[in-house]
Sequence to fold (146 residues):
Amino acid sequence: MNNRGKPSFSERMRRFFEGRNGNDALCRALLVAALVPLAASLATPSVWNGALSNILWVLSLALLAWSYYRMFSKNIYARQAENEKYLALKKKLFGDRASRARRREERKHYRRFSCPKCALKMRVPRGKGRVKITCSKCGAVFYKKT
Fold:
């Protein structure tokens, strides 16, 4: 509150965003994705009377509108479900960066093997020679050299 009893701009903005979705990972991805056709539309020469440039411009505006719709939406549960689906797809396509780094570091001390029956991935210490490996999921036994 300022000295005249009116709420400050930051207080009004905080109140406006209460109960709204706000900025999440999908929203940020849409904003970045909107920049690509925008840059392409600016770089495209006026081929076919600028039709390609106009299509890219409209695509960019549509992505921005979708991003802002999600940001200001009060249906938080639906937006969170969309964001979770996006994050699951992103993890499926690109993997988990932290687990990849951990696996890369573990390569110095462990070897990874897959169970021949159920394909469960297991790690075994390096330098132990020929070892007997028992799958914890299906109980299959197999021998591998580490």
Remarks:
- The chain has two domains: 9-95, 106-145.
- The two ends are 68 Å apart (CA to CA).
- The longest helix spans residues 51-72.
